[in-house]
Design a protein that fits this description.
single chain, mainly alpha, 4 helices, globular
């Protein structure tokens, strides 16, 4: 597979380059917050990183097969939400409520 999550050993993807100041690591603040939350939850032992990795690979694979137009971090966040629900860290209602609150604050949704 030559997907965004599985390029190890594949050729033709070009050199790995460093990010410059002109190219942000995160395009929107929520991407950095989601990343930080996922890393933080791993660091405090709420789940193992391999658990998140496994679920995220499933999400990326399904999205690629279905020509889903979601972004990398949208797929990533969906995987994080699934794991948080599976581990009982949050309820579906809490997730929905927080998503609505953040969308309203964002003003773009």
């Amino acid at each position: 597979m030559n997907g965004v999550h599985d390029i190890g050993g594949s050729s033709g993807f070009g050199p790995v380059t460093d990010h410059s100041k002109a190219e942000p690591t995160f395009n929107d603040p929520w991407e950095g917050r989601a990343f930080g939350g996922a890393v933080g939850l791993t660091n405090v032992g709420r789940y193992e990183w391999r658990e998140f990795n496994s679920i995220s690979i499933e999400h990326f694979s399904r999205a690629e097969l279905s020509s889903d137009s979601s972004t990398y971090f949208q797929r990533w966040l969906t995987a994080l939400e699934e794991l948080a629900l599976k581990k009982g860290l949050v309820s579906a209602g809490e997730l929905e409520q927080r998503a609505k609150q953040l969308a309203a604050e964002d003003g773009r949704h």
